Amino acid sequence: MTTLDSIPSRDCCTTTRAVVVIAAVATAVAINLLIYAVGRLAGGDFSFTQDQATAQVDALTVAGFSAVPLGLGLTLVALLVRRIPWIASIAMVIAPVIAIATIAIMTIPVDLDAVSTLTLATCHLTLAPISVIAVRRLRH
């Protein structure tokens, strides 16, 4: 049982939908920061070249790239699901596809070391099940 599964479901309750979104985002940020910390401990330096300069992926970036897209997507579903119930079914497909596609779009093309690439790819993958569980909770 996950944190999201333990949230009581109430019909058409805005507060419950907000709690689901917040819990999902908090869970994603916490898990991805833990994954990031393990990647750091494993020797990942999380630096890459951008516009002839070295850029760094730090904990704040990991938290933001976890929280913002997930929070926006789940908020959109939470606002629309009562009027457009089928939006939940679409979101349960689109969210994991986006999470996986962004590995190919954002993580693999940059010149990160192997540990950093694997760590950040794992961070992307954690968003897939979290988003599906959250959308399922928003649907009911």
Explain how this protein is built:
- This protein is mainly α.
- Helix content is 69%, strand content 6%.
- The protein contains four helices and two strands; from the N terminus they run H-E-E-H-H-H.
- A two-stranded antiparallel sheet has the order 1-2.
- Strand 1 and strand 2 form a beta hairpin.
- Helix 1 packs antiparallel against helix 2, helix 1 runs antiparallel to helix 4 and helix 2 packs antiparallel against helix 3.
- The protein starts with 13 loop residues before the first helix and ends with a helix.
- The mean pLDDT is 92.
Annotate the secondary structure layout.
Elements lengths: L13 H28 L5 E4 L2 E4 L2 H22 L6 H21 L6 H26 L1
Computed CA radius of gyration, to the nearest angstrom: 16 Å
> Which blocks of ≥5 consecutive residues have pLDDT under 50?
none
What structural category characterises the helix and strand content?
Answer: mainly alpha
- The ordered H/E elements are HEEHHH
User: Termini distance?
Assistant: 17 Å
Q: Quick one: how many beta strands? A: 2
> Kindly state the mean pLDDT as a whole number?
92
Fraction of residues in H or I helices? 55-70%
Give me the number of helical elements.
4
Q: Tell me the overall shape.
A: elongated
The fraction of residues in strands falls at 5-15%
Strand order of the largest sheet: 1-2
Largest sheet: 2 strands, antiparallel
Explain briefly what this protein structure is:
By secondary structure, the chain is mainly alpha-helical. It is built from four helices and two strands; from the N terminus they run H-E-E-H-H-H. It has a two-stranded antiparallel sheet.
